[in-house]
Amino acid sequence: MLKTSKKSKIIKEYKVHEKDTGSSDVQAAILTKQVEELTKHLKKHPKDNHSRLGLLKMISKRRKLLDYLMNNDEKRYKKVIKKLGLKK
User: Fold this and answer.
1) 9 domain residue, yes or no
2) What is the DSSP secondary-structure string of 14-80?
3) What is the pLDDT of residue 88?
4) Which tens digits make up the pLDDT trace of 17-58?
5) Structural domain tally of the chain?
6) Of the four, 42, 44, 47, 87, which is 20 to 30 A from 68 by CA?
7) The domain spanning residue 54 has which CATH number?
8) Do residues 14 and 4 touch, judged by C-beta distance below 8 A?
9) Residue 28 in contact with residue 66, Cβ under 8 Å?
10) Structural domain span for residue 28
């Protein structure tokens, strides 16, 4: 789980307009940060299969959000991918 301060910092960085909190860009960025933190956890606790399943679900959700973004606004998609440091 991300702290509220970290989440609000991510929202400020990726928001599309002034009152944006739930666009695909923002959601993908938040999920990316959560995936990074959960990956660190799983390196320390390799037998934590319950968290591993949650990680796979988060990655799947992020992939769907990014696919949606790619289909609707390719320029924003490329910008978000580059900013997040993801491949594709």
Assistant:
1) no
2) H-SSTT-SSSHHHHHHHHHHHHHHHHHHHHH-TT-HHHHHHHHHHHHHHHHHHHHHHHH-HHHHHHH
3) 72
4) 999 889 999 999 999 999 999 999 999 999 999 999 999 999
5) 1
6) 42
7) 1.10.287.10
8) no
9) yes
10) 24-84
- One-letter identity of residue 52: R
- Confidence at 1, pLDDT banded by 50, 70, 90: confident
Say if 69 falls within a structural domain: yes
pLDDT of residue 78: 94
Token pair belonging to 9: 């910092």
pTM of the model: 0.91
Q: Which amino acid is at 36?
A: E
The number of beta carbons lying within 10 Å of the beta carbon of residue 24 is: 22
